[in-house]
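Much of our argument rests on the idea that a fold can be written as discrete symbols. Part of our work consisted of pairing the sequence of a single chain with a tokenised description of its backbone. We regard such an encoding as a compact summary of how the chain folds. The amino acid sequence and the backbone structure tokens for this protein are reproduced below.
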Amino acid sequence: MLLNESDSWVVLLVMLHSHSPLPAVTTQTLATQVMNYVRDRVQNGEMDTESWYSVYQLSEELGISRSPVRDGLLRLEEAGVIEFVRNRGFRIIEPEASDVADIFSLRMAIEPAAAGRAARDITEHELKQLRSIVANMSSAMNANDEPGFFTWDQELHDAILAAGHARRGRDVVNKLRTHTRLLSDSTVRTYRSLEQVHSEHLPIIEALENHDPKQARAAMRAHLEATGLLLLRQALSRRTPELTPTELAEKVTSTWVKHVD
């Protein structure tokens, strides 16, 4: 069975030009499905760091050809998730929960500043693109289409980075988002709803429409911090289930402060 949707696993590097509503893009590539399949099997204990696995094995399990399996595994290797050894196959490399905080420290160094520049320089054409993306996010939210919603979420962040002249930043952030999906599951259902995630983006869009760089930076930072803290809590909870709620909260705070300014 192919699993969809989204969090080592630190660093895999669309521009939007149409005036009309963008088409839905909920279908994952086979390589992405392979990556998510490995992630889910690691998280549920079906794949571990002590065993060896092969491309042929995954190809048979997924019922797809070896080429996309290799593609997905090469991305995982680049991300530091797996290690290939000649004549043995590949094995899983144990990640650290603190990688989530590390990832968000990098995103927060890029995205708030880009949002501020976007608020200063954004054109009406770019604002129309953002409104179209937000409308598609709303449609996915109302349909309870979580994979589709987060596809549009990524499109929105990408478009803001583009409007903020962060060409290389877009590449870095797209890679970091890939690593986040490998490190943990979505926070939706466990900690918050699609409606709550959607609402976090609205102050960002409002600041862009008002051409308010200070508010755009603050709104983007608030959104990233809220998401990062929830993902970190989820990762720490999974890896240290023995912690009490108070101990977990303290661990989340200390890990976040250590990695994020």
User: Anything to note?
Assistant: The radius of gyration is 19 Å.
